[in-house]
Amino acid sequence: MKEYNLEPKYESCLDEIDKIKKKNKNLEWDDIKNLIYIYKDSWEYLGFPEDYEEKWNELVDYRKNIEERSEKSTGYLYDTSNIRQEIKVPTNSNSAWMVFKNMLMEKFPGVETIINSEKSAQRILESLKRESQNEEAGKGLVMGYVQSGKTTNIESVITMGADYGYNIFVMLSGTIENLRKQNLSRLQGDIEFSPNSNIQWKFFDNIKGEKLDGYLQNDKARIVTVCLKNSTRLKNLNKWLIDSTSLATKAKMNVVIIDDEADQASLNTKKIEKDETNTDGNKKEYTLDISLSNMKSLHIIHKKSPGVSFFCNEDGYKDMYNFDIAEDSIKIKNRLKTTLFKKTNYNGTLEIGNDIKLKRLSIQTVATECNIDSVYAETISIKNVNGSYTLNNVLGTNIRIDNVNGKISANNLLSKEDIFLSTVSGKMEIENIESKGIYLNTISGNYEITNISADEVKLSTISGNIKIETARVKDKNINSSKISGEIIINKYL
After folding, report:
1. Cα 490 from Cα 475, distance rounded (Å)
2. Are 156 and 117 in contact (CB under 8 A)?
């Protein structure tokens, strides 16, 4: 079968399949194939390739086969050299590896996981250089099947490596702070298992301003940290390891860097497409388009003052964005999305005059805090990835909100025709929502709605929960479907 996991464009699909299966263990693989329809409106923002529909069944079958053999997998090492140093598995009861191994024996009833982790760690360490002061560092790639004990293998490398004199271990953990903290907490909880160990562990949560001088004076000291892959954290890491250490400390440093998320926050090779600006010749109907961005915060306010204007409270950041203001369109596009490991601290306010009728309001944001107050547009489209939205008095003819894993809070979400809401794993809290037709779907996210009023309502969930306090629906015309989630309507009016 085709190795889709080696093709980066399918990784987001495979990850999504894994999430569904993990959260719904009783769900059959054929049932997952039938869920393809739920992604028709949000596939692009989940990072799915254009051909995901025609490949979906093959990808599900691939993951099915992986699961059937994953328990027997160990992982493979692809190294870039012919390095092979002799590594014998430590047997001293107080060694870092044996302390960790004893923890594994208590944690896992079987021995296969422990044997696989031991062999994998030994093989990886055999491929590392003991000395690289005057030459390039040893590099390699470890890969294995999904759910095959990746973190355990990393911990095995760290503990066994500690016994062989490696004294600084750095794990790169992606771009999400909560996950970084979770990784560090797990490492500390698993590795720092016994006070009888020959090794004295030191776990750094925040390396900013810290210096290594003094920590490595003790030959038993071993240092562990988990670092995010963004520009600020990586610069701090560089200062911590190189710039702020003395020559005497550097001479004692034996560093192992483990990239736990090699497919995340890597070089951006995506083709930059030319902006498209909508024009229809009507000077009184504007299209406002805020393209995919990662602003710190964005505020859109509907005011009584005439005209259309954009206010930036930090002028220094204004040049980071393209502002295209035509007779009938306003387009704001973040330039920073093509910059490696960089995120702006931009904070802006967009003020729209009361005499302006918006034909279309389109907002696509990533990791952005967005507040929208008292805005009307014929068509409203909001697409959110890992950000938070607060909507107040938002009116439109048609409204669509696609939320991946962020949070949407709304009060008075009103539409003349239809409202379409979808979330993958995020949360939506709505005080009042009114329209002719209201259509809600979720995969594993949750809805909490105080009041819903419509002629027709359709609710769909896989494993998420939809809770509605009060429903005013013509003839109780509510269609609902679920797999393992809950749909609760407390009161009909």
Report:
1. 16
2. yes
Which SS3 state, helix, strand or coil, does residue 96 take? Answer: helix
pLDDT band at 493 (very low <50, low <70, confident <90, very high): confident
With CA atoms as reference, report the closest residue to 92 among 199, 174, 172. Answer: 199
- CA 17/CA 24 separation, integer angstroms: 11
β 308-312/347-352 pair status: antiparallel
Domains and CATH numbers, the chain: 4-70 (no CATH), 76-259 (3.40.50), 285-492 (2.160.20.120)
84 — phi, psi (to 5°)?
-150, 95
As a whole number of Å, the end-to-end CA separation of the chain is 55
Lowest mean pLDDT among 120-129, 379-388, 404-413: 120-129
CA-closest candidate to residue 367, choices 345, 399, 339 = 345
Would the pLDDT of 77 be above 50?
A: no
Does the pLDDT value for residue 291 go beyond 50? yes
- Does an H or E element contain 184, and which? helix 177-191
Paired tokens of 301: 């306010």
List the beta strands (DSSP E) in 263-306: 285-293, 297-302
* Both structure tokens of 15: 């990850």
Q: How far apart are CA 428 and CA 444, in angstroms?
A: 12
Q: What is the band of 248 on the pLDDT scale with cuts at 50, 70, 90?
A: confident
Sign of the alpha-carbon dihedral angle for 252, 103, 258, 112: positive
Which residue, 218, 236, 217, 219, is CA-closest to 227?
236
Closest CA to 156 of 201, 84, 104: 104
Three-class DSSP category at 477: coil
Please state the rounded mean pLDDT for residues 152-164: 90
Confidence of residue 162 (pLDDT cuts 50, 70, 90): very high
Say which amino acid occupies 389: Y
State the residue for tokens 């502002």.
323
- Close Cβ partners of 109 (under 8 Å, ≥ 6 residues apart): none
| Residues 55 and 13: beta-carbon distance below 8 Å | yes
**Rounded-to-10 torsion of CA 299, 302, 303, 305:** 100
Asked if the model's pLDDT at residue 284 lies above 50, the reply is no
Beta bridge partners of 473: 454
pLDDT band at residue 344, thresholds of 50, 70 and 90?
A: very low
Beta strands per DSSP E along 98-231: 140-143, 168-172, 200-204, 221-227
